[in-house]
Amino acid sequence: MPTATARLDVDALLADPSIRIVVCCGAGGVGKTTTAAALGVRAAERHGRRTVVLTIDPARRLAQSLGLTELDNTPRQVKGIDTDSSGGELHAMMLDMKRTFDEVVQAHTDPARAQEIFANPFYQAMSSTFSGTQEYMAMEKLGQLRSRDEWDLIVVDTPPSRSALDFLDAPARLSRFLDGRMLRLLMAPARAGGRSMFNLVTASFGVFSRVVQKVIGAQLLTDLSGFVAALDSMFGGFRQRAERTYQVLQDRETAFLLVAAPEPDAVREAQYFAERLVAERMPLAGLVLNRVHSTTLDLDAAASLAAADALDAAGDQAVTADALRVHAALVRQTEREAQVAQRFTAAFPAVPTVPVTAQPADIHDVDGLRTIGDALAA
């Protein structure tokens, strides 16, 4: 890592009571989920904070590393956390977008209306597979956790960064969807007093409904009508809450941590996300550069290879010669990683970074998460 780069003080971040949300984001496969879990463990054990880790990534790595058989939409307390002296707690959960969607419906409609919505084919499709629903519901769930004021710290593990950008875009995308001309036309009957889908609320809507009916059929149009009518009564409040959550993400109570590996694609993604955060005036706390390599032997690659060749020529100490060649390869890898990391630090010199040394094996338990936490705070 370049010596001019400021070092990220992770312990100061986790201990700061004004920081209520930490969002970990970055490309896939860079250790983002492990980093989020390690931050949660350290915040609970070292700093006595009542912490919940929310993963939006459907992979099971978080549950496995925390020793849980499963994660669902409800926070589960993590056992085996040493909080006797700190008084903290650690909980973890994984976003279930359909269940969260169902909770929104139940909270904002009466039971009979909720059952009608649940049975609607369009709702079933949108709540399970519709593009963007996961990000909408992530904003809803984060807003729920924050509004309860039950947690000292919420650590969010996002999907790979382009999806995480969708997470940031959710309020605006939802507003565009609800304000779209076609949706307004479909909502016209509900807004006119609940009359039939096929009543001519206006001449223009009558023409529109007949055309759509010919294309998709009467029953499908009726299902769609019922769905958008439900949207009209339910989603105004969700849009407002999502926009409030977006404002929370811009507030100084939130800290965004970029997670990257010293690889060109991962660092490029981190730069892309950093540019977006700066443009959106969101607080970028720092970069976690994961899985870096280093050497403590003061011998460059060329000297190592020359020494190995000399030993080979002497016909002696083959093991030592092999070790020197391994060292030369490690030095070259370290140099390449430093050059890749320099691309980010050159573009964002004010963003503090912290390197985390590559581990000899995958992290799969709380002890391993403690090791990562120690490396983050070293």
Plain-language structure description:
- This protein is of the alpha/beta class and 378 residues long.
- The chain folds into 2 domains: 10-109 and 125-180 and 250-298 and 340-377, Rossmann fold; 301-331, no CATH class.
- It is built from 15 helices and 8 strands.
- It has helices at 10-15, 32-47, 61-65, 97-108, 111-119, 121-129, 133-148, 161-178, 181-191, 203-216, 218-250, 264-279, 301-314, 318-347, 366-377, and strands spanning 21-26, 50-55, 76-77, 89-94, 153-160, 254-260, 284-292, 353-357.
- The protein is elongated.
- The model is unreliable at 190-217 (pLDDT under 50).
In short:
InterPro entries: ArsA/GET3_ATPase-like, ATPase_ArsA/GET3, P-loop_NTPase. This protein is of the alpha/beta class.
